[in-house]
Design brief:
about 325 residues; alpha+beta; Nucleotidyltransferase, domain 5; Alpha-Beta Plaits; 3 domains; 5-stranded mixed β-sheet; 5-stranded antiparallel β-sheet; 10 helices; 14 strands
Length: about 325
């Protein structure tokens, strides 16, 4: 292990009584010992480089397990219609459902793909991927599909961005349940100031070189594998639970213009394409309560019909719609 040596050799003192202590000899501290000493001081905080974990050890006997596929993409841009994947990374790991702890070896995949177009300059700056790096490259369809087939849940840190891209390239992703570590975990309620992955890693005391797909996957897996919140649950536990819960998108059809400020303050977002204010809800009970609020605060007690889209983990974050129904208030 690397170490620094600190030599304490003061000038020879003048003659003194025998009671004077001898000068100390050289003291050697490893980098980790130095970091630990700084960490113990209230005025310092030490960040360590995140080191990928490729084997998480043995599982507890008799526990139910699921295989989680952690995913990240780098693309030529933000448009699902016109941009393309230029890098894909996947980590497949087994997770103890009872504890959320990953265990066993981590299977990895990383590959480039030529998008058939020049990579825009802004994408090069963000990802560090050049045209030369992807020229003539193609993702290994068979290896990717083999990992998809074995996954019980796909996790991405911005699934609303990643899912449409990978489903367009690999249709097998459409048949798997998904969870989003950005949207399905209330990081603010758990004490984090930001849900950005690099910020969550800093909260855990790690830094890493972001915006390359594989290291982002390793960072996400390690962030999710650590406890967050006072209940002792980690992020993987929270995502496994979230995947089993229904979600609803409620559209306030025909809401009067003068209600826009109240809707915005309530957390609704304006969908310019559908021309409707909408919000997301995590349970049937919240859906019922929100319908009551709309009836009283938006529609003024008048009879109205709202649109409800039920989203399970198979359709959540995909471009295709969930199950649609109208609800009369």
């Amino acid at each position: 292990m690397s170490q620094f040596s600190f030599d304490f050799n003061p000038p020879e003192p003048p003659a003194s009584p025998a009671s004077v202590a001898p000068a100390p000899g050289p003291v050697s501290l490893t980098l980790e010992q130095m970091a630990q000493q700084l960490d113990a001081h209230p005025d310092y905080r030490v960040l360590r480089r995140l080191v990928p974990v490729l084997d998480h050890g043995a599982a507890a006997d008799g526990h139910t397990t699921q295989r989680v596929l952690v995913l990240d993409t780098e693309t030529t841009g933000l448009s699902h219609a016109s941009d393309r994947i230029i890098e894909l990374a996947l980590l497949l790991v087994q997770v103890d459902v009872a504890t959320g702890r990953p265990f066993g070896p981590v299977e990895t995949f990383e590959g480039f793909e030529d998008p058939g177009m020049p990579i825009p300059e802004v994408a090069k700056q963000v990802t560090g991927i050049s045209d030369d790096m992807v020229r003539g490259q193609r993702l290994d369809d068979a290896r990717v599909q083999a990992l998809i087939d074995r996954a019980d849940l796909v996790v991405a840190h911005n699934a609303g961005f990643d899912r449409p891209f990978v489903e367009a390239r690999f249709p097998g992703f459409a048949h798997k349940p998904w969870a989003c570590s950005f949207a399905d975990i209330d990081w603010k309620a758990l004490g984090s100031e930001s849900a950005k992955l690099s910020a969550l890693a800093l909260d855990q005391g790690w830094f890493y070189d972001a915006h390359r797909a594989l290291v982002d996957c390793h960072a996400l897996l390690q962030v999710l594998g650590h406890c967050c919140g006072d209940d002792g649950h980690n992020g993987l536990q929270r995502l496994l639970a979230a995947a089993g819960q229904p979600r609803y998108r409620l559209g306030a059809v025909g809401a009067p213009f003068e209600a826009k400020d109240a809707l915005k303050a309530r957390g609704y977002r304006w969908d310019g394409e559908k021309r409707v204010w909408s919000c997301s809800l995590n349970s049937e009970a919240l859906l019922g309560a929100e319908c009551d609020w709309l009836r009283s605060n938006v529609y003024g007690g008048r009879r109205a019909t709202v649109a409800v889209e039920a989203l399970d983990a198979l359709t959540r974050y995909a471009l295709r719609p969930g199950s649609l129904r109208n609800v009369t208030l």
